[in-house]
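pinning this so it doesn't scroll away 📌
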Amino acid sequence: MLLSWIGTEFLETPLELKIRKYLKEDSKSISQYELYLTGFIFTDMKLRDYIKIIDKIIEKVDNKFILELCFLKVFLYYMFRPVNSSLLPLFEKQMAELLVKSRGISKKREKKYVEEVLRKKKEEAMSQLKLEI
C-alpha cells in the first residue's frame, strides 16, 4: 500500500511530521540516514518548502557520508533544472555548504568550485542535449 502512495500528496503530512520530529531532536539521538531518506523523499516530490527542508537537513546532518549523499541529490536537482531556473543559485549555495561540511574546506574556495566547475559541467551537459535533439 505504501508503494502505491509514494509520490502522492497522501504522504505529505506523515513525511512533514516525521521531518519536524527529526529536526527537533538532538543530532546524536536520530538516525541521520533516516532523516536523509525521509527528507529527500519529501523533496523528490517537490512538496511545500522543499528547498527549506534541504537547508534544514544540511544544518542537522554531520555524518560525512550522509552529507555526500545529500550533495549528490542536490547536484542531481541542479543538473535537471533548466539553465534559466530561479532555483539554481539556491542549489549552488547548498552544494557549497555541503562541500564545506563534508570536506572541511573554506567556504570561499568551495563557492568558487561550485560557480566555476559545476556551472561549466551544467552548461556542457545542456549544450550536448541541444546537439542531440
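📌 and the second one:
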Amino acid sequence: MRELNKEWAVFTAIEPLRLYGVDVTPEMLANMLQAQGGVFALISAEGGGIFENIGRYTDKGGMEIYLNGFSGDRVCVDRKSSGSIVIERPIINILAPCQPIVVADMFSDRQKAGRGLLSRILFVKCLSRVGSRKPTGQPMNERVKTNYHTLCGNVLNGLDKGDLVFDDDAFAEYCNFFNEIEQKLTPDTGELEFMSEWAGKLPGSMARLAGLIHCIAAFEQGKNPLTTKISKADTQNAITLAKYFLAHAKSIYTERVEPEELVHAKYLWRRMLKLGDGASKSQIYHATKNYKKGAFILDDSLSMLIEHGYIAATEHYISGKPKTVYRINELAKFSTFGTFTPENATNCTKCTLNVGSEITVSALVGDSDNPFTD
C-alpha cells in the first residue's frame, strides 16, 4: 500500500488530445492549456464569439492569458474554486474569420486596442465575391488533401518543444527587415507611424512565420525541425508573407485612423508645447517646415487649434508695431489629446480634437478665469 501511495503522489492524468476550442472563457482556456501541455488553439468560422469572450472578462484580468499566449510568457492563474495553474511557455493560436463589424468593434474597444491585442493579430481583408459567385464550388484537390493530412500526422507524431534558430544568412535577412520597418516608424514622418503599435511587432511576427515555414518544410521531409536552423530562403518567404499582411493591415488601419487634418493639428500641438507660450508664426513655421511638405498647411492647423480652444492668437506690440503671437491654453497645456481633463472647469467648451473621448478646456473670451489673459 505504501508503494501504491508513492505512485499515486506522482501520478499525472493523461488528458485526451484536444487541438482547439471555439467558445472558451479565459479561465477555461487556462485549464485547457494545462491539459494540453501549454498549447491550444481557438478556431471558429464565426470569429466574433472568440473576441466577445476576450472582452467579456477583462474586468477579471482575462486579457493577460491571450497576451501571454502570444509572447510565450509565463501564465499563473490562482482560483479558489480550481486551484493554481502554472504554464511556463504557453502557445495560443487564434484563427477567426469574422465580419467587418467585429473588427470595427475591436478597434473601438479600449481594452483590446489599448492593451495590445490588436497589434498581435495578422489581418487578411477579403474582397466580397457577392455578384460573381457560382452555385457550386471546386472540390479540394486530392493530392493537396493527402499531403495536408500527412503533414498534420508528421507534426503530431514529431511534436516536441525547443528553440528554433536562424542561420547567419537568415539572421541577416531578419535584421534588414527589422531596420526597414523601424525606419518607417519614426514619429511624425514615418510611413507606418499611424499604425506603429501593429507595425512595431511585425518583425517578430515575421520571425514566427519563418519558424512555421521551417517546421513545415522539415515535417514534409520527415525530419525534426529542431535539428536544423531556419534558412535564408525560409526567412525570405516569411518576409514576403509579412509584407502581404502589412498591406492588409494598412488598409484596415487606414479606414479607422484619424482624419489627416486632425493628425496635422496634433503634430502642431506637440511642436507648440515645445516652443512654449507666446511663439510667433515665424517661429512656428521654422519649427514645422520639414513636416510633410505639400500636405501640411500651417494656417489650417492653427485655425483648428484656435477653434477648439487649445491656443489663442493675440496681438503683441514691438516698437509700436503689432505682431501676432500664439498663447497656449493653460488648461490644455499638459494635455496630449486625452490625458488631461480638468474636473472643476466651468463655463467651458468641448475640445473635439480628441477622437473617442473629450477634453474640456476653458476658452471663453471675457471669462474671469480665461487662461489667455495675463
